[in-house]
């Protein structure tokens, strides 16, 4: 990474890093909870159900105890956004509102060709909509749908005129190859291989990935021609996968932290209507029902989700299905909004206004309420038999609640509503609870439930030698005295990586005035960063005594002796095969000497232990 310092100055890199809090940056991607002095959450790099991802605000590090990824804020963005180091600095600078140095700005971020093509197409369509004569038809339609300029710009909406090769010609002029154009999904291909614009006479809604780059489009029909489908979506391509894209996700997650929740809609038009009413945390799945991948994307941002699907029957069924998916993934706090008269958000806002709509979102009901409401509609409560069935199903649902206070509340309400005695219902409830517990035990035994095991980074077992080296490296970094001692005694780390880190640290502190571990990370090779971070995240006592230093060095000596003994054993085995008696004798003597040495070292360690116990 040192060679990159030439492009962006080290001062700038430090300035940007020091002006953000890593917790704020990571919170844009991960829902973090404070635990002790750290923040913890679900790792964005491997799929997991219990948090092993930890962010330390004091050291400005993150570290995952599951997949062992770790580093400072730049490393996080590099891994998460899959960008280079300078790009990562640029992103963090943007977050910190610090303009990039002039000479760097001239180098635009390089997207892959298909993504760049989608960016170009989105810009092209929007320019047509906002500034051209041919786009007026689209603009009139947008105005009819009450999409003002601010909305058009925020959602990057454009217009594809009724031409067969407008986009095609434009993109060819930009230098895209026929092959790239053919695989982009932006065109349809005839049997003889010719390409035509897929979207014609349509209002164009770009679908962006998690970083806000358009990867697909949805085109809304403008004409009244019922033979044309109302919406056409891009087919799946190498950059667009329906099941892991959420409309408006990159924008909504920026607001999710402040608002405390995301609002899930059925379609992208709902997201736009909600945005118009001041709800900026809206997202929607794209031309599919909600998928598990999307649920996990959402969970990385927040556990608080409000579901606002259409109030008609398909909408309610879709909402029920979504609730099931969220419950399966676990630990969500869900709210459901059912708008009256089977209205969708757009219709509701038109009829009742933005404020009323916001109130509806704030007043979202719990999933239990939602279930009970649905249940009540299923049965004729004037018929006694049906009432019994209703109560039995309701009590079963209430039994799935974890919180006994909640259970009491719902049972009480049920008793009041139906006139059935509270005692009878409570008896039913405890029976249902016993059954539910059995089910819970059964399902938790049948784990792992939803996701395939995460690819875990190559991981070396933490050996005694590794622990000793970590401790010594920690001492080397934090204590001038310890470093002096190790240097004076000519200590060399057995592992070349640790030795290299020690040398780099010496070099770093000699050449830098403001020394920080987080700054150090930017100047060492990537593969060494996680050693530093895992060393630093270990809960080890900060103070290092001379005795401990000596003891740790001894541990390493012992490990080294063990290694050497192993090598001589191997040599003996070889010599036996050759029947080389002299070599056997020589190796045996060497082993005996090493064993003697080992014994002395071990005695020294145990003497030290005794001495420290007696103190
Ligand atoms: Zn991880």
UniProtKB/TrEMBL annotation:
What is the name of the protein in this document?
DNA primase
- Origin species: Lactobacillus nasalidis
Domain comment (free text): Contains an N-terminal zinc-binding domain, a central core domain that contains the primase activity, and a C-terminal DnaB-binding domain.
**Subunit comment for this entry?**
Monomer. Interacts with DnaB.
A Pfam family of the record is Zn_ribbon_DnaG
Q: Read off the NCBIfam families from this record.
A: dnaG (TIGR01391)
State what this protein does.
RNA polymerase that catalyzes the synthesis of short RNA molecules used as primers for DNA polymerase during DNA replication.
The stretch of residues making up the signal peptide is none
> What does it catalyze?
ssDNA + n NTP = ssDNA/pppN(pN)n-1 hybrid + (n-1) diphosphate
